[in-house]
Amino acid sequence: MTETAPSHPHDEPPEDYHLLVPRDWFRIDLTLDRWRPQLKTFVDQQAAGRHMSAQARQGLWTTLRNTAESGVSQGSLELFLRSESTVEAATPATLLVSLLAMPGDLYATPEEWARSLSDRRGADAEVTLIDLPAGRAVRVATATALDLFVHMPGRAGYLLLAFTVPLSGVDSSLGQLCEAMARSLRWV
To answer: Which of 179, 116, 123 is nearest to 147 (CA)?
Structure first.
């Protein structure tokens, strides 16, 4: 009589994820219809705290709304915003969390996905494979953006953690915080 090994929990697609995000990052749930009022609350807080002109406030609203709408249309789950301001600008750092399902024949291994992204992103992006506690990930970095495509168990696809750090850049303490947030990812 032979025994089969019990399936490893990491062989099954996860039901959810946990990600540690500092309290000073404003969370917007993009899976709910109420994301626009949540986004308006953030913009209003930024405008009041920085004494922004009406034009600057409208520009911030438009930029963030476009980011959220684009994310929603591509299956994004959450948008996190953190104030990162200078005298000239109040551009927030962002984290957009998206599910990239790859069922059946669409599935790509991390190595295949890294090659594909390297071909598409060009010379200005550094594409590498890294190991995170949640699994193998494809890391794509530019001067102001950091995308981490974290391989999901069960060949389900990838969870994309797309960070933008427009003012301080990826090679900064805020960029290091983004990397630490990615390392906190756990599957449930």
So the answer is: 179
The model's pLDDT over 63-86, given as tens digits with 9 standing for 90+, comes to 999 999 999 998 899 999 998 755
Which residues does residue 130 pair with via DSSP β-bridges, in sequence order? 137
Give 136-151 pLDDT, tens digit per residue.
Answer: 999 999 999 999 999 9
Per-state percent for the chain, helix, strand, coil, to nearest 5: 35, 30, 35
pLDDT tens, position by position, 5-61? 333 355 788 999 999 999 999 999 999 888 999 999 999 988 887 788 889 889 999
Residue 94: closest CA among 125, 70, 64? 64
Residues 106, 107, 110, 112: what is their CA dihedral angle, to the nearest 10 degrees?
Answer: -50
Bridging pattern class, strands 93-101 and 126-132: unpaired
**What would the 3-class secondary structure string for 119-184 be?**
HHHCCCCEEEEEEECCEEEEEEECCCEEEEEEECHHHCEEEEEEEECCCCCCCCHHHHHHHHHHHC
Specify whether the CB–CB gap between 167 and 86 falls below 8 A.
yes
